[in-house]
Design goal:
CATH topology: Neuraminidase
Number of domains: 1
CATH superfamily: TolB, C-terminal domain
Strand order of the largest sheet: 4-27-26-25-5-6-7-8
Distance between the termini: 21 Å
CATH class: Mainly Beta
Shape: globular
Low-confidence stretches: 1-7
Radius of gyration: 21 Å
Number of strands: 27
Mean pLDDT: 91
Number of helices: 4
């Protein structure tokens, strides 16, 4: 990863860098692109099941295995090469049961599926048997990822301090704090492209940071990119507010209300390579996602991503372990495609796959950006 870590040093000659921080100004200005013009390595994978799937809004893929969480967080559907092989559905209050799945992490090396039960505990299941093997309490946990065979990294409040913490995955004991996280932004549960193979941590605030966390928890992280969105970003005042204070929530609500069309409300799916660093960001509260990539001192910003005949753009719902994006198509084909009749080879295949799905179950589309 050395070349990637040096990437930002090479872009300091650009006019948008001050004190080592890249300012992405005019973030709402971008090049509108067609999906077929910029997407590559496209794969269409229908999710085959004998039951109707209860809506899907989070997906994690490890090789040919896909874990898909239902909209309400009631269950996780598990697929191998697109065919359902298991379902975790254990809502309740007894041992091995959960109230709601907020987040989940799978460890391929230990065959353990970690479930974040609300914001209060982690429950562990064996895979593929999905048998309960233990749990531990973690108050005020908002997100987690696997650091190594015996350690999770959790975004949480611990002893009154918000941060990313290394936690023993066997008993829940906090081993160390990696770094503090700003008050409001501790609730960003997306740990991004983080696994033992690529410990890429993305943190948002008035200043956003993408870094590589080292295998040894005492070693200092390597900064890949520090950046902000200028006047369109979050104000510094939200970095230090106390989220247990009702007035803090009111301040956040006011910021969202006043700037709902322009504020950069989310960044996600940061992926570094030896040549570039890329991520997606959202303009406004209900706007679409846009793609950003920095190569040396050259920046590109893409928006749109409609494919021929689709009503909406195709932007990621998830990210695989090799940096491939995943989009979930679900619902009636009539809600996905317009009535123009125009279709590309890709959208023709996609429409055919959706029409053939029993129960109108979802179809996954995997792709990368050229």
């Amino acid at each position: 990863m050395t070349a990637t870590v040096m990437l930002f040093a090479e872009c300091k000659k650009g006019n948008n860098v001050h004190d080592g921080i890249l300012s992405i100004n005019n973030s709402s200005e971008s090049q509108e692109v067609e999906f077929e013009d910029v997407a590559t390595d496209i794969r269409i994978v229908p999710l085959i099941s004998d039951e109707p799937l209860d809506g899907c809004n989070r997906v994690q893929c490890y090789g040919s295995t896909a874990f898909v969480r239902s909209n309400g967080g009631g269950c996780i559907y598990i697929f191998e090469d697109g065919k359902q092989i298991a379902k975790l559905d254990k809502i309740g209050r007894g041992p091995g049961e959960y109230n709601r799945i907020e987040n989940f992490v799978y460890s391929p090396s230990t065959n353990i599926l970690y479930i974040q039960n609300g914001y209060s505990s982690i429950i562990k299941y064996s895979f593929p048997e999905l048998e309960y093997i233990g749990s531990f309490e973690i108050p005020n946990v908002f997100g987690c990822a696997e650091h190594d065979d015996s350690t999770l990294i959790c975004r949480m409040e611990y002893e009154g301090v918000n941060g990313d913490y290394f936690v023993n995955s066997r008993n829940g004991q906090v081993r160390a704090m990696h770094k503090k996280v700003g008050g409001f932004f501790v609730m960003n549960d997306d740990m991004g492209y983080y696994s033992p193979n690529h410990r890429i941590l993305s943190e948002i605030g008035s200043l956003n940071t993408i870094s590589e966390v080292q295998a040894k928890i005492d070693d200092e992280e390597k900064i890949i990119l520090k950046y902000n969105f200028g006047k369109d970003g979050w104000p510094e005042s939200l970095d230090s507010i106390d989220m247990n204070d009702i007035n803090a929530f009111l301040e956040v609500g006011q910021q969202l209300s006043d700037r709902q069309e322009t504020i950069i409300s989310e960044t996600r799916f940061a992926v570094p390579t030896d040549e570039s660093i890329s991520f997606w960001y959202k303009v406004g509260l209900i706007g679409g996602y846009r793609y950003f990539r920095l190569t040396g001192d050259e920046m590109v910003k893409y928006s749109g991503f409609k494919a021929t005949g689709t009503i909406n753009g195709i932007t990621p719902t998830g990210l695989t372990d090799d940096g491939t994006y995943v989009h979930i198509f679900e619902g009636m084909p009539e809600s996905i495609f317009d009535d123009s009749g125009k279709r590309s080879e890709f959208t023709s295949q996609l429409e055919k796959a959706m029409k053939s799905q029993a129960f109108n179950n979802p179809v996954l589309v995997f792709y990368k950006i050229k």
